[in-house]
Write a structure and sequence with these properties.
This protein is of the alpha/beta class. It has twelve helices and nine strands. The chain has one domain (about 5-255, about 290-330): Metal-dependent hydrolases (TIM Barrel, Alpha-Beta Barrel), CATH 3.20.20.140. The strands form two sheets. Strands 1, 2, 3, 4, 5 and 6 form a six-stranded parallel sheet that branches.
Length: about 325
């Protein structure tokens, strides 16, 4: 019996994106919320050596809190997390800067435990185009080569912050399914980073994954978004592409100071405030919806999905079962 089959119905809880100001408090809240695995951002704009330093920081946290968290590398680590009452932490990058301009580093970062890498973070990169650029010429020559190498080693292609053409070309060019770990459908809320029906359908056809975001700027009514509205968005998406490609990627940035927004958006590429859409309103972290403040509130989403009419099995898939199946199939070398 596969790990996915073992847990379907009872369901693991997997969050496909967080970037918290990590602390014992947050790790204990993960346990209170029954969160079995979290994909955490360990690089926004960091180069390779800086990313290694971030991994060293995580290694110290794994040493300090071994009863709460550990470094997850394989799908089987979700089962280990459930057996031992801990949370498996999976590493990912929101930008390809850790591989610099060296395709050989793709295999190295996978060996260090990275399992997801975005090809862009809002801007044009060496690999593809970000969602804030005015023009989208699609994948670059290097981008196509890097996708091939990511496919080979088992590093998942993430297009959460990428533009439309680049995302669709990544789906077509990749020999393995790609993901959007944290975004929402643009038909529900027309943020620049939310995804079109064409992207949603392409992910569904290719066995990719789409993680719904709880970040207020990507929700209808933002911080005032209701649980019912969120679950209706999930239901409408499921009607379009089916349940099996859907999961959660909360984009929870818990306890981060507002100054971190400048690092996320500006990095080292600009001296000005240029965040694309709504620059003036994006300089601080928005307040989370009242029904999803932190990791303890994942149960509210489960209850909301059931109230909307999803079956227990469907809720189990969305809350983590689909991500677990994807991990099983795509973290290993091809």
């Amino acid at each position: 019996m596969s790990t996915f089959e073992e847990f379907t119905g009872t369901g693991p809880r997997i969050d496909a994106l967080q970037y918290g100001n990590w602390s014992e408090k947050i790790f204990r809240q993960m346990r209170e919320g029954g969160v079995d695995a979290v994909h955490v951002t360990i690089a926004y704009h960091e180069m390779f050596r800086e990313t290694v330093a971030n991994i060293e920081t995580w290694n110290r946290m794994f040493e300090r809190f071994p009863d709460l968290i550990f470094h997850g590398k394989w799908a089987s680590d979700v089962a280990l997390a459930r057996r031992t009452g801990r949370t498996a932490i999976f590493f990912g990058f929101q930008n390809p800067s850790p591989i610099e301009d060296d395709i050989g580093l793709v295999e190295i970062v996978h060996a260090l435990g990275a399992r997801f890498m975005q090809l862009t973070y809002n801007n044009q990169s060496l690999l593809a185009t970000g969602c804030y650029e005015a023009e989208d010429p699609g994948l670059t020559r290097m981008g196509k080569q890097v996708i091939r190498e990511m496919n080979r080693v088992g590093l998942v292609v993430d297009m959460s912050h990428s533009a439309e053409r680049s995302t669709l070309e990544a789906v077509e060019h990749s020999e393995r399914p790609i993901v959007v770990t944290h975004a929402n459908p643009s038909f529900w809320h027309a943020a620049l980073r939310n995804k079109s029906n064409d992207v949603l359908k392409a992910l569904g056809r290719s066995s990719g994954m789409f993680g719904f975001s709880l970040y207020p700027h990507h929700l209808k009514d933002k911080s005032e978004c209701t649980l019912e509205s969120f679950c209706e968005m999930v239901a409408r998406t499921a009607e379009m592409v089916g349940v099996d490609c859907l999961g959660l990627g909360s984009d929870l940035c818990q306890d981060q100071p507002d100054s971190v927004v400048d690092w996320m958006r500006a990095g080292r590429w600009t001296k000005e405030v240029d965040y694309g859409e709504g620059s003036a309103t994006h300089r601080a972290f928005p307040e989370q919806p009242s029904w999803f403040r932190d990791n303890r509130d994942f149960g509210n989403i489960s209850e909301g999905l059931r109230a909307r009419g999803f079956s227990a099995e469907e809720v189990g898939k969305i809350m983590g079962g689909n991500w677990l199946r994807f991990f099983e199939e795509n973290f290993i070398p091809s």
